[in-house]
Amino acid sequence: MIISPPFLPATGNLTEEAWLASAMPLPISFNSLDVPEGSYPIGNLMLWHNGIHLSSTSIGAFKTACAVADGELIFVREPTPSNTNKDDPLNYNSTSDHPSWTDTGMVIIQHTTEIGSSDTEATSITYYSVVMHLSTIQHIDVPAVAATKTSKAQAASTRLLNVGDKIRRKDPLGEVGLVEGHRQIHLEICCDETNLKKIIGRDPAWQSPTKAPTAHGRTDAVFGSTYIYVPATAPMDTTEPKSVTRINNPTSTIGKPIWVEIHYQQRSCTLRTYDDVGTLLGQRSDTIHDLTMFDISVDRHNTLTDTAQAQSSPNGWYSLLRFGRNLSGDKLPADAAHWRKINTSATSEAWVDLAYSGCYAFSDADFLPLFGWNCINDDPSPDDQRCDSPQLRKWLADKDDPTGANIKLNTDAKRAKARRLISKFPTEWDKASILNRYGFVKELPGLKDNPESWELFKAHALAVCCDGLPKAYLDAQWHFDPREFIRHFRQCGWLSRSEIVQLIPEKAVRKAKSEWVSEKVPMNLIATELWANRLRELNRSNRQFGINTPRRLAAFFANALQETGWLVVMRENSDSDGNKAAYYFPWDGRGYLQLTWPSNYIKYFRFRGNVISKVDEATLARAHKAARDDLKDKNTKDKLHDTNLKDDKGGSVTIDKEFRDLRDGIVKIPPEDNPTDLALTSGTYWAWSKASQYADITSENVRTTITTDKKESLTYYTHEGFGSVAATVNVGRPVTDYSRINGVQARFQAYSVAQVVLFDTPEFPHSDGKFYPLPEGITLRKST
């Protein structure tokens, strides 16, 4: 799932939270209630409000509203031309007698994407975004059409966006208009109940935030922070315990239930402790993070006895450290301990076992009630627009209004509590139901004795509302705060097939003899069960190894695509035969990052919990050295072939058959397949090579040109951070001489495309010296 705000200011050096705040600014209050215009989920007069208003300047990134995600237009309404006629209902002003124009341009987009998967089925969700109060609807280019025997040629032209148009994230939808004279848009996110259940992973009912859990959270969707419920009986110690397994009958316990949040970000880890009602007790940094987790996992496995290791794997330990539970599918001791030094109170720290009996792990994908996520579905009069939900009134009540009789979102604290409420009520835009929904308004003080005010309000409502809204949208009565929905799902990192398709360049360059050739890239990612299984396991691997940010995903896929010949082959040169000409055959590349060389295969299979003997390791090390020595003399003699291996005295020897079968089983010929090893070889290599530290580098795109065999100048962009990742993948370590990296130009091209798809505001210098959001000379692939 890829999502972004409708406004896209430059990211600069802002943190994610700071950038999102700058991209989705709320309007100031233009009335005496100290409530920002267009608040969620309620506005003035206790009216349900579908979404939020976002304030705009009339320049730069805020002049145009953009699509928040890929989708399809299901409704478009052109705006009414503005005027200054005070009798026009669209010049209605709720706070004064001065005419204040409201624009009516509106688009509704249906978005379908994935946020995870079970073992058999992707967790596919459909939701809707609405952008209202546009002053114009975007025009799009229509390419020229050549004449045929039965039709005339058509010149290139433009037209307005229309129902049925496919929309990409960041596509312009139209210019920001006015809401009662103030430059704003209305943004909403909604879905139906079936999809809400898939989004939050449970039934949409109010849940007590303080109820202790009795099981782990969902496993299909896992993203963001890890949250672990720790019972009062969990052991604690003032010094780090030496044992990696559970302490039975502990002499000291924490004495009260707590929650621990584990948040990994780049090369750091933050541990936050909360009491059982969600109050933050403290936070501290931890030494277990993306760059240390692999080695720590291996160390914990190796600490065990040989007997205990039979029920263990470093991969299982890695999953425990990442997710607070073992989601890897590989072995982990039943009594594995997960010791972390945390704040046990506001003034004290201790080591606590977060995997003790009664501990339960969750992620942000669980939408935990303790941290504010809850569902409102108890309005006794759901067909009118007035919010009469007892639960919402109780949740947002304060000491000045203990019954919540007249809630106002006039404090930061109340607005923060409201942001994570998921509320059910009908849309405010349906013209056919206006009298039912707003009839109560004419009975309110100030309107009951002033029928003219009611008529003005009604006329305005009729003017801004719509006929013919799609049934799918009318049925999508569950609403999110769009800011929180966007912020939350930007942590997801799970890519659907259609999103991955867009990462594949239309064309790529390669060296043919002594000349550069630009060729069309095949699209092998077809919608089959084979690829559904492969992409599921690839996404699972990426989420386990922290390949879940735009920069890391772009760096990973730009290498994986080139390494596999654009997903055509999963083994070097050929799925069936491999690269027999390579001196390191049969230890040639396999998987998305083409795991190569005996030592890396040994490292990988040991990480999965397989036993590879020291004898086999020494045999292969000797053979690898001999093969490399022969390579220097240009006299390679297949010394790594299974039938040519020698012991330390020069006698013939074979390595264990089970080891050979593991190696040869990574890549199978369809319809047989091994999607797990294809993915995990890549994720594991990424983790132990610490590629994330290079992927996280924020360097510039540097314009470079080459001349093709057709004497055409072709532009591509180098990037320091990605270049280091490419070298780590292909050479084994970062290098500054990019010519040592096989196919580096195509990798750079793929990285440029990935930036456009995954980043919010990439910048590419063109030949005119200016910067643009698209790379020069590159055509993006359409998703299929």
From TrEMBL:
Residues 626-646 are annotated as: Disordered. Gene3D superfamilies: 1.10.530.10, Glucose Permease (Domain IIA). This is M23 family metallopeptidase. It comes from Sapientia aquatica.
